[in-house]
Design brief:
The structure is a single chain. The chain is α+β, with helices and mostly antiparallel strands. It has five domains: about 120 residues, no CATH class; about 45 residues, no CATH class; about 220 residues, Phosphatase 2c, domain 1; about 60 residues, no CATH class; about 110 residues, Chitinase A, domain 3 (Roll). It is about 35% helix and about 20% strand. The strands form six sheets. Strands 5-6-7-8-9 form a five-stranded antiparallel sheet, with no helix packed on it. A five-stranded antiparallel sheet has the order 10-21-20-15-16. The chain has a five-stranded antiparallel sheet with strand order 11-12-13-14-19. The N terminus is likely disordered.
């Protein structure tokens, strides 16, 4: 054990002891170790350990960084550096000035300095984590979580929160985040439908970094790895899916920042569910409320994996390697149109399936009994929209319909129970209408007009409320909403007398309110026809995000997220499949078989699933594995080597815009064509590795494809940091002779193989 830096610092007659050491282990590895005892009203001890290093100089360099950061920023700063050092690789140039003979001089580490101000601050105590701000001379506060920390005095080191009456409530210290030895990689794949991609995927591999950089939020108290993923499948158009993909992190991360203590699994499930509901609320108010999408959101914190979803989606766990992999369903969302219970529900709410799609019911497509049973209000049971509303017309219509639907007049070939229910409703509606007309005929006519209004179109809502329907600029939307709300209030008064007589009264009120929301929705003259044309389109699920016309005032479609969770074993290798649309209906066994060759290749797995004949939508594959274990179960060699030899096949596509000095040709492929070709080529190489030179010469768009013989595609020895980050990570994670996943870089798609 080598002592790098002992330092004693007198403050007010006391001594602070700081030690930075290097420990040599039996396995010829070295670790920097910082210890510090600070004299405060009680003794505070700090211990920090750097990563395991193969060289002693690297460990000494780690210790220098730990010591400098501690003297500059205290414990919190040193802990931050300790985490970063695990991913830091020192270059030979950085280690050139590290010399063991300097360990015994008075000031062995350049940059170390006496920092009395720091130790004065340490006497006041500094809480762990980021985001603390000054609340008072003796207290700090975390603004997002509203947790307070006392720095000095009798209650130094205590944490508090304000109670409901403003009193101080003593609470537990924040969560000490645990870092699990897990590596997470994820990739997505999707298909083109109607000439566009309806699906959007989001992969946030490090939510703590994204929260800090994009939203200025501290997330330093969550377990790691901390990752989030989402998959949104557009239904009628991709607009809702696009909006959700762009705003997913803005809804999820602030919720995670609200708490710095340990999250229970149930609380994290509620966070995901609330995130989906908030996105839904904003889509419903947006300029594209009829778009809609299925949604899957997932969160990995430490060894806990949680998902929430709504619509046509499923989550599958694949455990094990190759053909021996086992599958289990973590989440299978409700709402498919072939489910009997769901059919009964949306029938009651006025929905029906036509050509495999869920729509509003159309009376012309129903027999007499079903038309009566599914009539949305008491008027439509007996009368057509053209019929006059009076007692005589009601009684005449009753006599005609009673003859048609009386169960005693039906033979055994029909469903008599349906006719019994229809006849009972017919009688009840006749009595109710006669009672309402006797109470106030004009109120009846007004409520009937409201119940028949088409309030999801701007012209229909304006006609109901008798206001100007012309689409307006955002600057005067507030005035329009006020005018519409005032008109709706006056309209409700016209049929208020029927509240005690009609079951349809609350529905009529809801229709008036929906008309107000339609008038308040941002819209332009140009976009109005396209947006309202969506009202004619059916959807393939009875659960979804958005789809305002199918959810209000009658909930034919529901927005009810489902949640699930599991604990990931740190010794197991698994893949999680997030599936939407047709891909979610593929049999589990087919998904397992299709991805058997790609247990460590999430991009190839996702492309394989989406490429199945019966699949025509999106998938996300998340690979979660122990950091130091190969697919074969052999420990990965961490030799500290900074160079590897590799070769590749490059497949360029039309989205690559920048000039490429190594470009051999530009075949003008689409992204989807490049992905399909890359997957096919990779799978051929896995089966026949010796075919690499031949395939590279035929397919690669890089000039290296013209090199002779076995050198075809050879990039030579590549140093760490020499290539793009995404390629760097892939290359240095491979074993010798192993083929990597399909990698998308600024040049196109790469099929890579490590040679040495």
């Amino acid at each position: 054990m080598s002592n790098i830096h002992p330092a004693c610092k007198p403050v007010s007659g006391e001594f602070h002891l700081l030690n930075v050491q290097v420990k040599e282990h039996v396995a010829k590895s070295f670790t920097a170790f910082l210890t510090c005892n600070i004299k405060v009203p009680y003794m505070k001890a700090v211990q920090l350990e750097g990563p395991s290093r193969s060289g002693k100089k690297e460990a000494i360099k780690d210790g220098m960084e730990l010591g400098r950061k501690f003297l500059a920023e205290g414990e919190a700063g040193a802990r931050s550096v300790a985490l970063k050092l695990k991913k830091t690789k020192w270059s030979p140039q950085q280690l050139a000035n590290v010399d063991e003979k300097d360990l015994y001089t008075n000031h062995p580490l350049p940059g170390f300095r006496d920092n009395q101000e720091l130790f004065a601050k340490e006497e006041e105590l500094l809480p762990p984590g980021e985001g603390w701000t000054r609340h008072s001379p003796t207290m700090l506060v975390q603004p997002h979580s509203q947790v307070y920390f006392v720095q000095s005095g009798d209650k130094a080191g205590k944490y508090y929160r304000r109670g409901t009456r403003g009193e101080w409530v003593d609470i537990d210290p924040p969560n000490a985040p645990q870092e699990y030895d897990i590596t997470v990689r994820a990739a997505s794949a999707s298909c083109v439908r109607k000439g566009v991609k309806f699906d959007r995927a989001v992969m946030l591999n490090d939510v703590t970094k994204i929260a800090r950089l994009a939203l200025k939020l501290p997330l330093s108290f969550v377990d790691r790895p901390a990752s989030a993923f989402a998959l949104f499948q557009g239904l009628r158009t991709p607009e809702a899916a696009q909006w959700c993909a762009e705003n997913f992190h803005k809804k999820l991360l602030p919720r995670l920042a609200e708490k710095i203590h340990v999250y229970k699994t149930e609380e994290l499930q509620e966070v995901l569910e609330a995130t989906l509901k908030e996105m839904d609320e904003e889509v419903m108010k947006s300029a594209f409320p009829f778009s809609g999408c299925s949604a899957l959101v997932a969160l990995l914190l430490g060894n806990r994996f949680l998902v929430a979803g709504v619509g046509d989606c499923r989550v599958l766990l694949l455990e094990g390697e190759g053909k021996a992999a086992a599958s289990s369903r973590l989440l299978d969302c409700e709402g498919r149109l072939d489910e009997l219970e769901e059919q009964l529900r949306f029938w009651q709410e006025g929905g029906m399936v036509v050509d495999g799609l869920l729509r509003h019911q159309h009376p012309d497509l129903l027999d007499e009994a079903k038309r009566i049973l599914c009539a949305p209000n008491v008027f439509d049971v007996l009368l057509t929209r053209e019929d006059e509303l009076d007692v005589k017309q009601v009684r005449t219509a009753y006599k005609k319909l009673a003859l048609r639907v009386h169960p005693d007049k039906k033979n055994d070939t029909v469903d008599k129970k349906a006719y019994q229910y229809a006849f009972a409703r017919l009688e009840e509606s006749k009595e109710k209408l006669e009672e309402m007309i006797a109470e106030d005929l004009e109120s009846c006519r007004e409520i009937r007009r409201v119940l028949h209004a088409e309030v999801h179109t701007r012209s229909g809502a304006a006609a109901l409320l008798n206001v100007d329907w012309t689409p307006a600029s955002d600057s005067i939307l507030e005035e329009i909403e006020k005018e519409a709300a005032k008109a709706a209030k006056e309209l409700k008064k016209k049929f208020a007398k029927l509240q005690a007589f009609s079951k349809d009264f609350s529905q009529a009120e809801a229709i008036c309110d929906e008309a107000v929301r339609t008038m308040a929705r941002p819209c332009t003259v140009e976009s109005l026809p396209r947006v309202e044309a969506l009202l004619k389109e059916g959807v393939q699920m009875s659960r979804a995000l958005g789809l305002r016309d199918l959810r209000s005032p009658r909930p034919v479609v529901k927005m009810e997220p489902q949640v699930a969770s599991c604990v990931i074993s740190t010794g197991a290798a698994i893949r999680v499949a997030l599936l939407c649309g047709a891909t979610s209906a593929v049999e589990d066994a087919k998904l397992v078989q299709r991805g058997a060759a790609h247990t460590r290749r999430p991009k190839a797995s996702a492309l394989g699933w989406v490429g199945l004949p019966e699949a025509s939508s999106a998938a996300v594959c998340i690979s979660i594995r122990p950091s130091k274990v190969e697919s074969s179960g052999v420990k990965r060699q961490k030799t500290g080597a900074d160079t590897v030899r590799m070769r590749h096949i490059l497949l360029r596509h039309h989205q690559v815009k920048q000039a490429d000095p190594m470009l051999r040709r530009d075949p003008g492929r689409s992204v989807q064509e490049a992905e399909e070709l890359a997957l096919k080529t990779l799978e051929s190489l896995i089966q026949t590795p010796t075919a690499f030179p031949k395939l590279c010469r035929e397919l690669s768009d890089c000039q290296t494809g013209e090199q002779p013989g076995q050198l075809c595609g050879d990039l030579g020895w590549v140093a760490r940091g020499q290539t793009e980050a995404v390629l760097d990570e892939a290359i240095f994670s491979l074993a010798v002779n192993e083929f990597g996943d399909l990698i998308a870089s600024s040049r196109g798609f790469h099929i890579i193989q490590r040679l040495a």
